[in-house]
Amino acid sequence: MKKTDHYTDYAVKSILALCKIHSPSGYTMEATEFLMSEISAMGFAPKKTRKNAVICELGGKVRPLVLAAHIDTLGAMIRSIKGNGRIRFTPIGGYAGGFVENENVTIHTRKGKKFTGTIHLINAAAHTFKNTATMERNEENLEIVIDEIVSNEKETIKLGISPGDFISFDPRTVYTKSGFIKSRFLDDKASAGILMALAKAIADKEIKPSRKVYVMFTNYEEVGHGASSGIPTDTEEMISVDMGAVGDDLKTDEYKVSICAKDSGGPYDYEITNKLVEIANKAKIDYALDIYPYYGSDVEATLRAGYDIKHGLIGPGVFASHSYERTHKKAIKQTLELLKQYISN
Hints:
Number of strands: 19
Strand content: 25-35%
CATH superfamily of the largest domain: Zn peptidases
CATH architecture of the largest domain: 3-Layer(aba) Sandwich
Helix content: 25-40%
Structural class: alpha+beta
Oligomer: single chain
Order of helices and strands: HHEEEEEEEEHEEEHEEEEEHEHEEH
Distance between the termini: 25 Å
Radius of gyration: 21 Å
């Protein structure tokens, strides 16, 4: 087996493990501890920021670079408990209501208890309601039916469930024999797994960075302020490693690494984008250069916070973003290779 394939396999293994850890924005403690343990086992000394992000210096001395992925995901929070004992929820992050209809969920109470349930339309039965097909899927028309014998608000409250409890969605993570990873939250756990594999390659001395490299795993990206703080003061460049958008007229697919030239926040740094393209061409990496029309990244939060840095964005192509997502092992490999080449130039 080629060494590149070895680290790609490690990335896939890490992605699968991360996807199975519940971590909606604001409730990422278990994912943080997983990263701290895994990266420490490589021989590095990761640290947690006050916001509970993980940052680790991987080596090198000049031209400090931060590679950032986020471990927080979409999710929800209990808004209120209804008179029938069911739950009205408010989204964490942005997604269409139809993307979570019929999804199994876990409710995480403030006292550490966990309850399961399912998101349903309020008129869920096609045999008893004529408008199930046409009803809008929104906060008013979707509810969580918990897997407990309750019929009113008091009975649900008695279980210890209350407004403000976090709700996570079942990731339904699958790795197929043909190399596809299907799961919720490949945005951005696919990239987090890739950064873990990059760290492992450096720890194994398979790569020697030609510059100072940090990896950072943020935890509030889906709500807009993940990397707005905690960036090392000597940082000169920062690249968000996030999902590559697939769809419409974009050239990115599930087998490529995507390089973003512009998203909803504006253009990415001209020199960094050019360098990424140049390296990809020279190394014969399968890539696409694209514009993401409805997208924002961690590094933009860093810029808005006032950091004076150059910025870029790359990531594996991910289909069906913010829904039940899919990517392929080939995209993981191409993204990892581009990162290896970039930190070595």
